[in-house]
Amino acid sequence: MACRLLSAAWGPFSHAFWFLWRRVPSRVRIRAYAVLYRAGRFVYGPTAIKVQRLPCNMFIKYCSVSSDGPLRNEYGALQLIRRYSNLNVPRPLDFVSDSERSYMVTSRIPGHRLGEMFTVLTDDQLHKLGMELNDFLAKLRAMPKEVRPGTAPMKAVTGATGGGCHHVRMELISGTRKPNGPFATEEDFHEFLRTRRPPPPDEIQRGGHDIVLTHGDLSQRNIIVDGDGRLAGIVDWEHSGWYPTYWEFTSFRFGLESRYTPQRLLDLADDIFQGLGDFEHELAVERRLWARIF
Predict the structure, then answer these.
(1) What is the pTM of this model?
(2) Which positions are tagged coiled coil (predicted)?
(3) Are the C-beta atoms of residues 156 and 182 closer than 8 Å to each other?
């Protein structure tokens, strides 16, 4: 019955349904999601740590209230992207907390993670996928930044909604999962990246980059493709935020540094970032920084 009700919510009255549903007491919504969670585990099996596919084409993520910053950041990023674009990202349906846990419910993007399809896609399919991702990132970068009272200024480096940054590379530097920043300027952000050790001159990143909306974890597990290798959407926006234009590129390459990387994946990276800026200098500086810190 619950699934039939929620499935009906994908029709023409879906926005009204979710608007009203989010006004139902939190304890009722959490109980409903608990039923769907158990049904999802029964039908689909366990999905991942603190993530579960649900019936009715949905996903739920959960964590402790004390560490729900990345989850809130992802929910805010999805709201922002859906408000200002037609980019294919999960639809943020609900965010609810009790005294112990926070829960985020989103729509599911049908398809396969790129990592599951990479070896079976042809070079031509990967090239076309790279061009689609290139267009996606160009539109993402054009997203307007909302500056509201109490949030950081326009040029600040922040999380998706203007607060602190939730990025795994920054957590490795700070040694904590607490938010870092926000940073009023790009220079303040670069200073934070060098906090572990006094940097030599060749580890000082140049400034002057535009600050743009960035996914921050563009990996094969977060790129969803259809059966023909076409881009279906991008998921997992926990590390997203407003970063210098090079950050998406160096974050992508950071994920390739610790293992053998096939040439086809490097070629895909070239297609993805073609025309979005030449950041080889920034990558070289960061590699020297990574070698000293990580």
Answers:
(1) 0.92
(2) none
(3) yes
